[in-house]
Structures are given as C-alpha cells and as structure tokens.
Design a protein that fits this description.
There is one protein chain. With 135 residues, the chain is of the alpha+beta class. Helices cover 46% and strands 27% of the residues. Strands 1-2-3-4 form a 4-stranded antiparallel sheet. It is globular, with a radius of gyration of 18 Å. The two termini are 23 Å apart.
C-alpha cells in the first residue's frame, strides 16, 4: 500500500512538472493504479492458491469438477452478457466461509461496480450485487 501511495505521489509530481492537464494527470494516475492493482491481484492469487492447495485435501471422488478462478469469472460475466474486454478492475479471490469454498468476483463495467459470489464446486451464483461507482 505504501508503494502504491509513493508511486501515485511520484507520478502526480512528474505530471504536474511536465505541464500535463488535470484530466491527463487523472488518467495517468488511474492507469498507474490499475497496473498496481493487477500486480497486487496476481500476488494475492498466487498466495491464495498455495494456501488452498495446502489446506484443502483432495477428495477421493467428486461428483463436480471444481470451478477454476477463470471459470468463476466467466460465469459472472456470462450472467451479465459481458466479455473480459468490457470490464475493468477484475479481481477474484477464493474464500472459505462455514466450510464452503466460493469465489468473490468483482469488476467494473461502465458506471457500475459488480460483486458476485460463485460456489467453487458447482459454479452456482450464490449472490450478485451492483453498486454505482459514484456511491
């Protein structure tokens, strides 16, 4: 988080010194924030997958094919009729609540922020929430 703040401050200073417009500076800061979020998401995914593999024993035989992170994202996008190139800030985390594994899928499309909870074994949408990005 400190790195993100420092990065944003440095970018802000450089852009203001270069005489960039406020709108251009805001776009550059948003792009830097998005890149930093993508890197943080990738690191979180790596840690989550390692923890998941170490904590969840492999079942002897399963009726369902476990849902992957990419499949959970696709289920959420398909529900809204969207593709990956129509969304930004796509972030997915695997969580276990009350012994049940699920994926939290979050993204922005247009002026809306979406959050889905997808069952990790069945792929069923457990919940879906939409909020305005201006809230």
């Amino acid at each position: 988080m400190k790195q993100l703040i420092v990065l944003l401050l440095v970018l802000s200073l450089l852009l203001s010194l270069a005489g960039c417009s406020a709108a251009g500076a805001a776009r550059a800061l948003d792009a830097a924030e998005d890149r930093m979020e993508e890197k943080l998401d990738a690191a979180e995914d790596s840690v989550e997958n390692a923890v998941r593999r170490s904590l969840i024993p492999e079942p002897a035989e399963s009726v369902f094919e476990p849902v992957t992170k990419d499949r959970a994202e696709q289920i959420a996008l398909d529900h809204l009729g969207l593709s990956k190139n129509q969304v930004t800030r796509l972030h997915t985390e695997y969580e276990i609540d009350d012994g049940m594994g699920h994926y939290d899928v979050q993204f922005r499309s247009g002026d809306w922020d979406y959050e889905f909870e997808i069952h990790a074994e069945t792929g069923k949408i457990l919940s879906c929430d939409r909020d305005s990005k201006y809230d």
